[in-house]
């Protein structure tokens, strides 16, 4: 039982690191809390709330995995290497896909809850919003 409780201590230390040291995680966590608060205020149906909750944890988990990949690669190879850059870009791309999925889920659910639009219209607006945010560079579409 002692080692089981110790593993929680390690996990909490890892989450603390993500929240205090990782800029992207902090941003996504703040957005997630804001969306979660909005979800509670709007009074979503149970299944809608669960999709929002899943989407938030999905993106935060992907960002955590991305941080693990980056930290490991920086530890293994301190100098620049093209393969390291590719692997880091792939990990970031996975976070991007998760974030785009989350935007689509949010536009479908909040579109219905706030504006009474259909799911297909919410999907359409989600795709448009993803393209717009990508173009602005907010989802990695900008220059390095």
TrEMBL record:
Q: Where does substrate bind?
A: 63
Q: What does this protein need as cofactor? A: Mg(2+)
Print the keywords alphabetically: ATP-binding, Cell membrane, Kinase, Lipid biosynthesis, Lipid metabolism, Magnesium, Membrane, Metal-binding, Nucleotide-binding, Phospholipid biosynthesis, Phospholipid metabolism, Transferase, Transmembrane, Transmembrane helix
* GO molecular function terms listed in the Swiss-Prot or TrEMBL record: ATP binding; kinase activity; metal ion binding
Stored CDD domains:
UDPK_IM_like (cd14265)
Q: Which Pfam families match?
A: DAGK_prokar
- Can the keyword Secreted be found in this entry's annotation? no
Active site residues according to the UniProt entry: 63
Q: Where does the chain bind a divalent metal cation?
A: 22, 70
> What is the membrane topology here?
Multi-pass membrane protein
Q: Tell me where it resides.
A: Cell membrane
- Provide the Gene Ontology terms for cellular component: plasma membrane
Q: Which residues bind ATP?
A: 22, 70, 88-89
Enumerate the InterPro entries for this protein. DAGK, DAGK_sf, UDPK
Where do the TM regions start and end? 25-43, 49-69, 90-114, 120-139
Q: How is the cofactor bound?
A: Mn(2+), Zn(2+), Cd(2+) and Co(2+) support activity to lesser extents.
Task: Fetch the Gene3D superfamilies from UniProt.
Answer: 1.10.287.3610
The family this protein is said to belong to? Belongs to the bacterial diacylglycerol kinase family.
**Descriptive protein name:** Diacylglycerol kinase
What are the leading ranks of the lineage?
A: Bacteria, Thermotogati, Thermotogota, Thermotogae, Kosmotogales
């Amino acid at each position: 039982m002692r080692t089981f409780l110790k593993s929680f201590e390690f996990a909490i230390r890892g989450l603390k690191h993500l929240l205090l040291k990782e800029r992207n995680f902090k941003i996504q966590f703040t957005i997630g809390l804001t969306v979660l608060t909005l979800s509670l205020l709007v009074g979503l149906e149970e299944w809608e709330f669960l999709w929002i909750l899943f989407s938030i944890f999905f993106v935060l988990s992907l960002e955590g995995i991305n941080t693990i990949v980056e930290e490991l690669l920086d530890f293994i190879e301190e100098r620049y290497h093209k393969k390291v850059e590719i692997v880091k870009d792939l990990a970031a791309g996975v976070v991007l896909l998760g974030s785009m999925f989350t935007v689509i889920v949010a536009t479908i659910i909040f579109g219905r809850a706030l504006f009474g639009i259909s799911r297909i219209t919410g999907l359409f607006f989600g795709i448009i919003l993803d393209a717009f945010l990508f173009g602005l560079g907010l989802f990695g579409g900008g220059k390095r």
